[in-house]
Design brief:
The chain has 17 helices and 27 strands. The protein is an alpha/beta fold. Strands 7-6-5-3-2-1-20-21 form an eight-stranded mixed β-sheet. Bound molecules: zinc ion (2 copies).
Amino acid sequence: MSKPSLWAIPLGGLGEFGMNMLALRSGDDIIVIDAGLMFPEQELLGVDIVIPDITYLKQNKRMVRAIVLTHAHEDHIGAVPYILGDLEVPLFGTEFTLALVRKKLEEHALLDKAKLIEIAPGQTSTIGPFQIEYLHVTHSTIDCVALAIRTPVGIIIHTGDYKIDPTPVDSRPFDLHAFARYGQEGVLALFSDSTNVERPGFTPSERAVVVRLEELFRAAPEKIVFSCFSSSIHRIQQVINIACDAGRKVGFVGRSMVDNIEIAHGLDKLHIPDGSVVRPQDIRSFDPKRLVVLASGTQAEPMSALSRISVDNHRLLSIHENDTVILSARIIPGNEKAIFRMIDHLFRRHVLVYYEGGRSAPIHVSGHASQEEMKILLQLVRPKYFIPLHGEYRQLFQHAALAEQVGAVSGQIFLLESGQPLEFTADGLAHRRDPVPAGRVMVDSGSLEEVEDVVIRDRRHLSEDGVVVPIIAIDKHTGRIEVSPEIVTRGFLSDDGQEILGKAREVILKTVESSTAEEKMDWSVIKEKIRVDLKRFLNKQTAKRPLILPVILEI
Ligand SMILES: [Zn+2]
Ligand SMILES: [Zn+2]
């Protein structure tokens, strides 16, 4: 009989931002921890989302027993609808996490096939040779867990995303005791969140935003539009509380904001006092001095509620001089241009805009541990091996250096990147193993198909469905299209497709005409609108999903 061993196989999220996924394999049993997505970078325009390549899991499909989810953020659950069909395994997660997963599966018509198993902190699940205890951790969303996993070769701890919040909004503390208990018992390996390793000190408690928000709410002369990540239920709870105290009612706009609030409220995890909500259809006419609107779209996503509000093109409300807009979120690198353009639109309308930065008390705090919290965790767990997770290479590197400095790792620290397995053997040693397939898969969120995978796969799909490049010349001064749009295609239509392209031109014209002047000046917005409308039209006409890359020429 061969001796037991354990393989840890990172399939995403190590050396890159997003799409977290780690597989653990012992013998013929595999469990997968998290299945996240990554939002595409600018240069991948034309692609909706990015998910990890799961070739390794498909090759070993009969061994995969479960996907265990640590929390409800997109970079941990976003890939579930796209990979579940290939794996057909049960999903384990907390109540809120599964509620969001259920919503996604419903949208993809996959709910019937899915088996969802709800877990809670303190509970234990046995999956094959793995015994998993769920440990409560604090983070920017609710119902987050770390995993303590008993395996045939020792205990593995996976932190998930965490910070150590001493005063959590829901009064449910970070379970330091559990981490200490496992540390006492002896932990083979710790896998830990590296996101904020560049920040010294402690991450402030979620409650730290209250001071400044109260100040801003009291000072606001007219209505307040407050934007945060729609999964930041703690933040939303605090805003509702502060609004009520300030004698204001709350309205909600933006699909993800409305959905998440509905789900959290339905699970009794968000408390909204009776009579404090303004219905969507009443927001426009409600007294602005007594109103707070929670809106999604902190990253200036082109079609989001806040983007539309900033150019006064939202059907539920308009924005006026002396309104207050609070952007309570991190400006994610890569989104600066779009966000600052959105902020400019607001300032131009004489709106009072507040965003992260400056020296005042914070309007946003991070959900990830800073250096001192990382040190505490290392000292409590005192693992034999340490593997930094969840970060770009520089963050993993610095987390490794920090662990070295703390001196709490008795064995070795391993810097792994996605696709690089580590094997823990029965004699207590750890060895790097040959890489497995890993990479990024581009998905068109309107379908379950991969549109293109620019990194590792061939361009098969591209050659089947082709590329469409609409070229639109917009007059800088009038904002109008002066010459008919040109459409360049490769591998998309044969010669008899001229009629469709003619109609596609009309679609483009209609999209541009129905946009406001500011939208037309904001290229990222107008490009995204054209892409979405054209995608819908071409898919209907041809059943194909070409890659659409709009180009705007200013004349
Ligand atoms: Zn998270
Ligand atoms: Zn994360």
